[in-house]
Design brief:
519 residues; mainly alpha; Growth Hormone, Chain: A; 74% helix; symporter activity; MFS_2; Oligogalacturonide transporter; transmembrane
Length: 519
């Protein structure tokens, strides 16, 4: 896609800027600690029942998922405040969310409190945290229009998160070995270490980010108000809901949404039943295939670098197809292994599955990096439609959809397995043949079918190097005072194809942002 930075963003990003951006996903170790150890902390040292804990966490995550677009809405509109214009809209949002995140993160780990306290704190924590990840995920599009820089930012984001997760698992294993894991104190002390470290990384990263300056396209409050003098609280609520839905009118986003949902769904299904597949289909134990964890991490980091390079040469959609075809071939191989493992020595099954699932890191890395890279270009189409830059809006929507997909998949997997007679606590050899077959087809079939659906959908995405160059040039022309009447026929066709609406209805002449706008 376009390799020329727009005047709104400035020069190409330095490697210092890119590496300091990595501090933001690296700070996510705080969240990884929550996801990995919170349930164990509540059910073991604090002795809260598993039913109460799972309900409490589900409620917190669900509420957080639906609050996420609110943070995207606030982040996009931070320039309407004096603080935002002085500090920056993304930087300002991070500096507001970081101390709130720290306070409620610490309160999650306070021991021996009543259940209602943990429920309340979890709800608030999961409502505050999106103020951070919404901004972090919007930054590749916010910080630059240069496609190579965006690909590198996406890669840095993946590497930062991966390094943080791996370092946490290694460091935690060391600390639990020293301090033990039977009482609440080790969990609390480890969580406090990450609270301080994560917040420091977050603030340093926030202070170093680059963002688009205050101008006509980043002042979204004018579009919200329209002819009105101000927008009241009820009007804001309506606007948040409308902005969440009205993006579906943009053709490129609809196409991207199909790609995102297909890969997100198959990766979630595979993750949900991975241990069941290993135990009940291949008749192995997770420990027997866990020896590759360290190697898989190192291999995964190499894969991210490989795909960052390939994406800049092939483009997002061709890279996505390549990663998807590679994944399909691997899971056909895993399916064959699932059918024939009974005729192989156990050591052979373990070795073959470990190789295949490790290689899946390469395919999965290509899919995730290409999808994230393409997502960073959707706001460029949105700018042509609305005349405004709304990176936060799309980051918020995507985070909410991740919560919805995770919730729906978790429920469906449970319902399906219960319907076919899955026995909790059963020995690996006592599950019925129907359960084993359902796990085999669900594990492999979901990946193969939805990866193929994603491949088909990429051919509907016409956002490539040529069309993006045209799109960015037209936005720059209109931003600098050019007339819509002077559009060339080629540009008109590209804009209408990507936007899915007549050219005359673009550049804010619609109600995509403001439902009351009659223009």
């Amino acid at each position: 896609m376009s390799n020329s930075a727009s005047p709104a963003v400035g020069r190409k990003l330095s490697w210092v800027t890119k590496l300091t951006y990595a501090l933001l996903p690296l700070s996510f170790t705080m969240t990884t600690m929550v996801m990995t150890w919170q349930m164990i902390y509540y059910t073991q040292p604090l002795a809260i029942s598993i039913g109460i804990v799972t309900t409490m966490l589900a409620v917190g995550k669900a509420i957080g998922g639906f609050i996420t677009p609110v943070w995207g809405y606030i982040s996009d509109r931070m320039y309407s405040t004096a603080f935002g214009r002085k500090v920056g809209r993304r930087k300002g949002t991070l500096l507001i969310a970081a101390p709130l995140n720290l306070i409620f993160y610490v309160l999650l780990w306070v021991p021996n409190m009543p259940v209602w306290f943990y429920l309340l704190i979890n709800i608030i924590y999961y409502g505050v945290y999106p103020g951070i990840n919404t901004v972090v995920y919007s930054l590749p599009s916010e910080m630059t229009d240069d496609s190579k820089d965006r690909a590198q930012l996406v890669a840095v984001q993946q590497i930062g998160g991966g390094v943080g997760g791996f370092a946490l698992s290694m460091f935690n294993a060391y600390l639990f070995k020293i301090w033990g894991a039977d009482s609440w104190e080790p969990y609390f002390k480890i969580a406090m270490i990450y609270a301080v470290l994560g917040t420091v990384l977050l603030v340093i990263g926030a202070l170093c980010i680059k963002e688009r300056p205050y101008d006509e396209t980043t002042d979204i409050s004018s579009a919200d108000k329209g002819a009105a003098e101000k927008v009241g609280f009820f009007g804001r609520l309506v606007s948040v809901f409308w902005n969440f839905l009205s993006v579906l009118r943009i053709k490129t986003f609809r196409n991207y949404l199909g790609i995102f949902l297909s890969q997100m769904t198959f990766r979630t299904v595979r993750g949900q039943i991975n241990a069941y597949f290993i135990m009940f289909v291949l008749l192995l134990t997770p420990a027997e295939v866990s020896l590759s964890t360290g190697f898989s991490f190192l291999f995964g980091m190499v894969c991210v670098v490989i795909w960052a390079t390939l994406i800049t040469k092939l483009g997002g959609m061709r890279a996505y197809r390549l990663g998807s075809w590679f994944t399909i071939v691997l899971f056909v191989g895993i399916f064959i292994l699932g059918l024939t493992h009974g005729s192989m020595p156990k050591a052979t099954v373990t070795l073959v599955f470990t190789i295949l699932i490790t290689l899946f890191t390469l395919g999965n890395s290509g899919i995730v990096n290409a999808q994230t890279y393409v997502q960073s270009f959707v706001p460029d189409v949105d700018e042509l439609v609305t005349g405004k830059r709304r990176e936060g809006q799309y980051a918020g929507i995507q985070s909410t959809l991740e919560v919805i997909v995770n919730t729906v998949v978790t429920i469906l997997v449970g319902v399906i397995l219960q319907a076919v007679g899955f026995q909790s606590g059963a020995d690996v050899t006592t599950q019925s043949p129907l359960v084993v077959n359902v796990l085999l087809y669900m594990y492999c079939g979901t990946v193969v079918v939805l990866a193929f659906v994603g491949i088909l959908l990429t051919y509907r995405m016409h956002l490539n190097e040529k069309t993006h160059d045209i799109l960015v040039a037209e936005s720059a022309r209109l931003r600098n005072g050019g007339s819509m009447d002077d559009v060339t026929e080629e540009t008109r066709k590209v804009v209408e194809d990507l936007a899915g609406m007549p050219y005359e209805k673009c550049w804010g002449h619609n109600n995509v942002i403001n439902v009351s706008n009659k223009a």
